[in-house]
């Protein structure tokens, strides 16, 4: 697989930049990380006052929301080919974070 998984992380990151998202997430100061189990890579970005910074390769010191999956599942979820809930319930997608944060983030993944 090419680096479609990075494009999919960036798609989620860019979803923070819409006018609607800026209002919803304006007070957010969080770190999101993405661990791709099949390729052994982790990426993260920090959200400051609702605005995401650039994607960085590597494990962050602290992660408020951590998504662990394989790259193919992630691309499928972000493209809409795989339902996020289906990936989660089948344990292909694992998410760690507070429930209010996860529910809020779900809106960005559509």
Features of the shown structure:
110 residues, alpha+beta, Nonspecific Lipid-transfer Protein, Chain A, six-stranded mixed β-sheet, 5 helices, 6 strands, globular
Structure description:
This protein has helices spanning 4-15, 19-24, 71-79, 84-89, 99-106, and strands at residues 29-36, 41-48, 51-52, 56-57, 65-69, 93-96. With 110 residues, it is α+β, with helices and mostly antiparallel strands. The mean pLDDT is 93. It has one domain: Nonspecific Lipid-transfer Protein, Chain A. 22% of the residues are buried. Strands 1, 2, 3, 4, 5 and 6 form a six-stranded mixed beta sheet that branches. Helix 1 packs across helix 3 (71-79).
Low-confidence stretches: none
Helix/strand class: alpha+beta
The value of Rg in angstroms is: 13 Å
CATH homology superfamily name: SCP2 sterol-binding domain
């Amino acid at each position: 697989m090419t680096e479609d998984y990075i494009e999919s992380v960036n798609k989620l990151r860019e979803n923070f930049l819409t006018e609607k998202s800026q209002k919803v997430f304006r007070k957010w100061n969080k770190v999101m990380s993405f661990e791709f189990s099949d390729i052994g890579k982790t990426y993260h970005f920090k959200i400051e006052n609702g605005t995401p910074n650039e994607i960085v390769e590597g494990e962050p010191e602290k992660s408020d929301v951590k998504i662990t999956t394989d790259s193919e599942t992630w691309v499928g979820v972000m493209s809409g080919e795989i339902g996020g809930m289906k990936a989660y319930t089948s344990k292909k997608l694992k998410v760690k974070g507070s429930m209010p944060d996860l529910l809020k983030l779900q809106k960005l993944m559509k």
